[in-house]
Structure formats: C-alpha cells, structure tokens
Amino acid sequence: IGGVKIARDDVVRESDPTNNVPDNIFSKIGLQLHRKDNHPIGILKNAIYDYFDTNYPSKFVKFDDLCPIVSVQQICSLQNFDEVLVPADHVSRSYNDTYYVNADTVLRCHTSAHQAELLREGHSHFLVTGDVYRRDSIDSTHYPVFHQMEGVRVFSPDEWKDSGTDATSYAAMDLKICLEGLARHLFGAVEMRWVDTYFPFTDPSFELEIYFQENWMEVLGCGVTEQDILTRNGRKDSVAWAFGLGLERLAMVLFDIPDIRLFWSTDQRFTSQFSEGKLGVKFKPFSKFPPCYKDISFWISDSFTENNLCEVVRGVAGDLVEEVKLMDKFTNKKGMTSQCYRIAYRSMERSLTDEEINQLQWNVREAVQSKLHVTLR
Ligand code: PHE
C-alpha cells in the first residue's frame, strides 16, 4: 500500500479454511492504478477531482490510499457490510461473491466500506477512490479487481431549513444536480435518465444512466444516506447524499478500451497511449489477436458455482482468459446436471500458439476436476 507490496503470507495464516483469496488476487493489492497519473484510471480520477474542485472549491477531502485489507489498517466485514446496513442475509456477504481474508476480514467490495469511519472522523465532504474486489464471472467488462470512487456530502440543518422542502428532497435534488454536472463534465452533452433502485445504505436510491452508442449505460449508483448511518456516526441532525461509481466502466467508454484486462497491461504499446490530464484520448488497438475457444463439460455437484469455476480458470490462465460462457445445461433422468462452458483464450499482447492453449486447457481441466468436485465428461 502506498507502493509497498503486501504478500499473501503477511496477512493469511497458512491453510486458513476461511480464506478464499487466491495469489493472483493478492498480487494486485498495492498496484494502485488509480494513483498513476498517466494511466486511464488515474486520468479519470483526476478529471472527476477537477469537477469537484471547480464546483466546490476546497470542499471535498480526497482519500485514495485507504487500505483494502484489515491487518494493515481496518477494512473488515464490519465496515464493508454492517456499517452500511447490508442485511445479514444479503448475497454480497457470501463466500461466493466476496473475498474473505479470514472469517471476519474481507477485501472491500465497494468504497462504501469507508463511509462510516470518515463520517466518524468528522468529514462532511469527501471522495474515496480505491481498488475493490469481487468474485464474479469472466467477460470483457468484468474483472475481480476494479476501482471505484465514492462521494459523500453532509448538510447541516441550516442548509435546508429555508429551502421550503424537507431534508430528504433537498439532498436528493442537490445530488442529482451535482451528478448530472459530473456526467456532462466527463461525457459532454449527453442524454441522461434517473432510474429508481435499491441500496441498503441509501433511501431513496437511484442509478444514473447515459445514452451512449445507442445504449442506455449505467454510470453510477447513489442516493440519500440512510439516517441510521448518520445517527450512528455522530450526525444525528444532518442529512447526506452518497454516490459510488466504477472507474473502469467509464474509462472503457471514454478511452475506447475494449477489454477490462487491458487496464492491467504493462505493455508499452498500451501504457504509452495515455498521458496526464488527457481524458478521452481514443485507444488504438495494436492489432487484434484471434481468440481461441475450448469447451469443457462436466457433471456438477450441489456446491458448484460459476464464480468458483471462473476463479479456477483465472487461476490457471490468468489474463489469457477472455470469457467463460455457459453454452449448455441439462439434467438427466437420474437428476444429474451437466454443464458445458466455452472458454475464450486470447492475449491482448501477442498470438498464442496451439500448443500453449492446449496446455492451458489441459491444466484447466485438471484444476476444475480437483478443486470443484465435478466429474469431467
Ligand atoms: N456501493 C454501491 C455499489 O458498489 C454504490 C453506491 C455508493 C450506491 C453510494 C449508493 C451510494 O454498487
């Protein structure tokens, strides 16, 4: 963190059964793409900073170096879930969705994990940028590590009491104006719409969508902070708003980056295309290498999940795997279920040889069989 790499052995006791963080995920901790001014993620972060600095001069305090794991600072499941009111039975708490370092410590799955501690420290306007971790399926827009920016603004009673509206409406209105301005700052004159949604930590909750390349694209989630969060953290009489946005998703659109794995590339042909302060320079692919598809079929067990499969495939093939897609599924008379997945292998940087791919697929088959309790067909 802050340039210091953390090794798995520093934080995980050997063979702790409550740990599900593989080495390839640990190795991402501390890379901090969002703190590199010449990287698309850092460039986007700085562009958002500019918007807040211009419109709210010296108001928002910026954090971009809060540690994603507990043993170095204090991101535990308490902060990631309990402090932002995530219900006890919410799927995001499961081992299938979240990386647990041990039974009560996680790699944060959102920057909302820092809301409560920063409110407690007395901050009223803040932005938190950081790497977040989620177990998920594999395709061109999903990667188990990505970056988010959180924004929180707290209003004291005297700010809305003369407004003629109640505190919640006042905050919701201010939130929408702020974020519409941000979207225009990043995307220019775009069509936008607000969609009602649910988050455990805000009410009402909204998503902002923009019309981009003939599609409505979700840009961020936000809402008026649950009063409980304010009350518990010393802000009983205040009202607040919060938003969280995924930097990769926006950067892919702004810079024309076709695959999320590219953000991790250290290939000069990628990194040299971006420079500090230049938002929206279009990425020129250095040539498109062909994908290679391999199928794998197996009888699943009750404990099988797609996220677990993707983790195993990623563990073997790393960033050479582009997509893992369910192609076929059926249940036979005996009640056994078979699934067929198609794995797309492709390097962003070079052509892969047949030999290399066959070896990868062989290793994937071995690993799937030994780690997932399935029967290969
Ligand atoms: N934490 C939410 C997510 O990761 C985003 C969010 C942040 C929504 C703040 C509302 C308020 O999806």
From TrEMBL:
Its EC number is 6.1.1.20. Residues 130-285 form the Aminoacyl-transfer RNA synthetases class-II family profile domain. It is an enzyme of class 6 (ligase). It catalyses: tRNA(Phe) + L-phenylalanine + ATP = L-phenylalanyl-tRNA(Phe) + AMP + diphosphate + H(+). Is responsible for the charging of tRNA(Phe) with phenylalanine in mitochondrial translation. Belongs to the class-II aminoacyl-tRNA synthetase family. This is phenylalanine--tRNA ligase. It comes from Musa troglodytarum (fe'i banana). The chain holds residues 93 to 469 of 469 of the full protein.
